[in-house]
Every structure is written in structure tokens, then in C-alpha cells.
Amino acid sequence: MSQNEKGGLTRRTLLKGSAITAGFIGTTAVTGFPAVHADEPITLRYLSTATNQSPAIAAKAKEVTGINVEYVTVTTDDVTKRIITQPDSFDLVDSEYASLPNLIPSGNLMGIDAKKVKLVDKLATVMTKGEIGGKKIGDQGTAPHKVFYLEKQRGKTFANEPTEWITLIPTTYNADTLGIRPDLIKRPIESWAELLNPEFKGKAAILNIPSIGIMDAAMVNEAMGLVKYGDKGNMTKEEIDKTIATLIEAKKAGQFRAFWTDFNESVNLMASGETVIQSMWSPAVTAVRLKGIPCTFQPLKEGYRAWASGFGLPKTLKGKKLDAAYEFINWFLSGWAGAYLNRQGYYAAVLETAKENMEPYEWAFWMEGKPAEKDIHGPDGGLLEKAGTVRDGGSYDTRMGAVACWNSTMKENAYMVQKWNEFIAA
Amino acid sequence: MLEDKSRWTPYWQAAPLALVFFVFFLLPLAVTFVVSFWTYTGYSIEPAFVGDNYVTAFDKCFASLPDLCTTFRTYLSTLRFCLLVWLITLVLGFTIAYYLVFEIRSNTVRIVLALLTTIPFWTSNVIRMISWIPLLGRNGLVNQALMGAGIVSEPVDWLLYSPFAVTLSLVHINTVFMIVPILNSMLRIDRSLIEAAYDTGASPWQTIWNVIVPLSKTGIAIGSIFVVTVVMGDFISVGLMGGQQIASAGKVIETQITALQFPIAAANAIVLLAVVLMIVWVMLRLVDIRKEL
């Protein structure tokens, strides 16, 4: 559930330009191209967070497929809430894999027919098998490959083996870590344990979204050698108690400057120097850097906390809309959108097609961890990194290969939320 | 016939508002109350009649006394802000209203100044909150001024993300709720009463205490109800200004809703409502608003 309003700063400013150009492209598309769908153009209501939406993608989709994409923008938690409480209010949803243990039993989503997804065999193995180049990566928590397939199309249980019914077709994923201010810390940071290092008393922050905050806290506890977890993404009550106890102790000692819940808050805290080390999301680090303030998305020896989201279909979707949804998904995987997402620092579901749509120097910087040969620009053309810089954490293989756990829904979720409230009140 | 009609007229006149209240206030409230006895899983809520949610809300609260449980601690913290903010807004609100009514002669100036007190409402809550950071932050204006003047050598941390910051922002937002009703009450005070007090030898303080305060009681009570109910339910200011490190009843409910635990959130909402209603009830016992309106 991490990508709450993530798009906020960067996207809003970055995309202004492209939105305008996209508008023009969109217009010509309507008049200039023979419509792919001869009859009434089909509109898909696309429910997701701001992170996964961009006017440029919608415009390009319209141009190529003739499908109108109507974005319904809500926060991560509201995506889950909508699927459960108003399953008829959208035609396509981009949701996090971490919420699936709550979504699938509700029966409001249907399995996606693998046979209708052209590039299904090309989907990144990180998502489908939990491995990179045949090597297993960390799979604690709700790792996508554990919840990737359903027993049957309208099943309420996950399948252990690949089947032809897929829960979500991946759109984006990434590996998160701590953000730091190297100019204020002035020494190397290598471990999650540093978040609670008294050296940073009153200058640390953690995010106040229980399901993610608890995972970051678990990374810290494990790094400090305080708690040994069976599965950080599915803690026992005792493990939750211990994790929260450490947090409460640190809070009482004045370790935290603040907790944050949305993207912009985390940017403000870091940019203003109120904090020097905190839980952070990748585009927030970029946003701080765009202000000319040094900020590093620091790789740590214990690894990353990863997240992933993907397309799901509501159980009531049928007829032309259903066909259009498949067509849109197929277009999305065909490369243009993937390249767009890669240029934002996320990872695309089908890497091969994304690569075809990127310049070699872009691919080298974003995916291979090589120093930028030229200045690196965002999808809209705005300058992101100067030539010579290297992406924090390096290549795709290094970053995704070092994933330690995934965002998750725990069995003891209710208890965890109760304990988290106790931590906030302490 | 005619008499019959006029007897029902007030009811018809009140009907639209009553209907709005029924649909958008009473009905949702009833639903909240009912749901607070339901059970839930991560993805569903099931009709039931169990007190589990209330038990969870007060988990270990009585067993662990004298140590305070989460709920008690949360409410104690909220009540403390409530009392503090109420006192400060009362003193400020009364003083400002007094100044506007009794010190300003020109009606135009009075209206202009009264409008100025609404300035905090010109910007959205979020903008208002974010703009405190450059002022009170570690590298903010206040700290720069203090350090520049040589008063402190290190930046003062407690200006932001602290109980002080929460109180400051709540006072900033809520003072106008106190000013307006008190102003309204004061404007109705017959000036000859004050002259009479003056003529019979009362000192200015005696006049305020024995004439103006009693006659402004209704305004004070209404303003107090506004301030107390807003502060009790606030979680945005407390969250942003307290760096989310300070608990509030509203935030607890929000967290539970986010986690799709609607029944327990409903139970907590009912508890909060009960607490606020008790406070309002006490205030109404002290001042009979209807009698004095």
C-alpha cells in the first residue's frame, strides 16, 4: 500500500508539459486516424492511485487502440476500499498485490485469462516466479508470485502452481529503502539499524501507514539483532509486540522528528532538514533532489522492501468493455507505457518491450546501473539527473535482487493496527 | 380552519431542514451505531450483535490502572488540548470581541476588522498547516531570528512537531469561532446598562465582570461548544503539527477505517460522540442558551 499520492510533486510538475502535448496528439488521433473501433469508442474507467496514471499514457492508448481511458484517482487505501465496497464503479483497476489477500476472498475481482494476454510469457520473472535470472529473491510478505494465480476464474483461493487465471497483470513495481541527507550525515550509511541510531536523535522519521511502517520497523529490528522473524510480512502477535516495543522506546527517547503519511510530507521533512534519515519512496527522493538538495535513496546491506501493482478486472465486466480491457492491457505491456514508467524510476512488467522503446543510454542508466552518458530526462523531457550520475542502488538485477521482503497483508492485521495506534499514542 | 393551518405552519417550515438532518445526520449516525456491534474480517463486515469492538476499544483499560491504556491516554491528551485551546481562545475571543464592540466607534471599521479575523479561513487547512514549517521549523524564520539575535545558539526544536505547535495551530484556527458568537452577544448589550454601571461607580473591571460577562454568557457558551467539538474531533491539525506523534481519537478512527475495520472504527466514533455530548451537556447545564438567546 505504499504508493499513496506518490505522484504528487514530481508528476504534477513534470507532466504539465506532456499533458499539453498529449492533448494535441489525442485530438489528431480522434480526427486523423481511422478509428480502430468503427462504432462508438469504448470508455474504460481506470481506478488507481495518481502514481499509476498519466495523461500521456491515456492519450497514447487512445491514439493506438481508440479506447478512452477515464482515470478515477484515489489513494492506495481507497483503491482497496472501492474494490470491496463499490465493485461496479470501475472497469479496470490498478491495485497493489499486497492487498490481494483481502481482495480475492471478497470475490469482487475475476481471474484474468492468461491466453488473452499476448506477452504473458514475457512478464518479468520477479513477478511470476520471484526470481531474477533463475536466482530466487526475498519473498517474505505478500510477494507477487505467491498470489499471482487463481485456482479458477472466479475462485477465492490462490493457486500454488501456475494456472491460466491471473489475479493481476503487473504494471509497476519497485524496491524501497531509507532516504538520507548525505550532506548532513557526512558518513556512509549501510544498515537499516541506523534509523534508530541515537546519533540521529530528533532527526529521524518513519511512515505512519501501519501496514508499511511495520515492515520498515521490522527491517530495523532485525538489523539491530533485536528480533528474529519467521516472516516479516506475516508476523506473530509476539513478533508484533516486540517490534512495537522497540519503536515505543525510540519514540520516548525522542528519536523521531515526525511521522509522515503522504508523499509531500516526506519531501518537506527531508528538504527542510527537519529529518536526515527516514522511510522514503523513490520519486520523493527525486523531488528533493530536483530542489537542488542532496538526497540519496540509500541501498542497505539488509536489502529492500519491495512493492508491486497490477491490473485487475471487476467480476461484472463483460462484452465489449471486457474485450477493450484486454486490448488495453495488451497495449500497456507492448512497450511504450513500460518505457514511460522505467523513465520515472519504476520498473515495467515486460522488460524486453520497454527496452525497445528506450534510448540505449537511458536503458543503461535506469536498468544497468551505468553512469549516465548524457543528461537523463523524465518522460516529459524535464531534467532528472546530470550526465555522469549513477542510479542509487545500481542496476535492476542488483536492486530487485536485494529485495528482502514485500508489502503485505498480515493474518494478524487487526492486532497490528491496534498495536500501531498504541505506538502513536505512546 | 385558519387556526389549524397556522398551527402546522412552523412544522412545514422546519420540515426541509429536518429532512436534511434526518437523511444526512441521523440516519448515518444510526447506521454507525448499528455497525459498531458487527463483526469484521479484512474484507467483509458481518451483521451481528457483539460488544467485542467496545471491548477492544477499551482493551486492558481497567485491568492496567493506574497505568493508562491507549484509549485513555489518547482521550487524556485530546482533553488536555481541548481545555488549553478553549481557555486561550476564550480569553482571546472575548478580548477581541470586546475591543471591536466597545472600543471601535465606527461601524465600518468594526465590520472591516471583524472580517479580518476570518483571514485564517482564506487558505485551505493543508496549506495553512504546511506554511508553519518555514516559520517554526528547525531552519525556520523564528529559529533564524532567535539565533541571529544571539538568544539561542542551537535551533529550538519544540516550536514544531510538539504539543506547543498543536496548541498554536488549533488556537489559530478556532479563535474566530469564539469571536463571532461573543461579538454577537455583546452587540445586543444595551449601552445604557454600561453607563449605569459607570454612573454608580463601578470600576472598568467591575463593569466587565458584573455586567458584560453575564450578558455575553450565551455567546461564550456557543463559542465554547464550537471550539470544544472541533478540537475533540480534530486529527488533521494534531497530526500535521504534532508530526503525527501525538495521538488523537480521530486519527485512531481514521487508521481503523483505512485498515477496513469499519465496525471497530464505528465503535470508537460512538465513544467519541458520547464524550463530546457529555461535555456539551455539562456546558448547557451551566448556561441555558435557549433562555438567554
From TrEMBL, chain A:
InterPro entries tied to this protein: SBP, TAT_signal
SUPFAM superfamilies: Periplasmic binding protein-like II
Pfam family, one: SBP_bac_8
Keywords of this entry: Periplasm, Signal
The name this protein goes by in its record: Putative spermidine/putrescine transport system substrate-binding protein
Organism name: Kaistia hirudinis
TrEMBL record, chain B:
GO biological process, one term: transmembrane transport
Chief localisation class: membrane
Membrane topology label: Multi-pass membrane protein
Domain of life according to the entry: Bacteria
Cell location: Cell membrane
Transmembrane segment boundaries: 12-40, 83-101, 113-133, 158-183, 220-242, 262-284
One GO cellular component term noted in the UniProt record for this chain: plasma membrane
Residues annotated as domain ABC transmembrane type-1: 75-283
Keywords tagged on the record: Cell membrane, Membrane, Transmembrane, Transmembrane helix, Transport
Family to which the UniProt record says this protein belongs: Belongs to the binding-protein-dependent transport system permease family. CysTW subfamily.
The protein's name in its UniProt record: Putative spermidine/putrescine transport system permease protein
Organism: Kaistia hirudinis
Species lineage: Bacteria, Pseudomonadati, Pseudomonadota, Alphaproteobacteria, Hyphomicrobiales
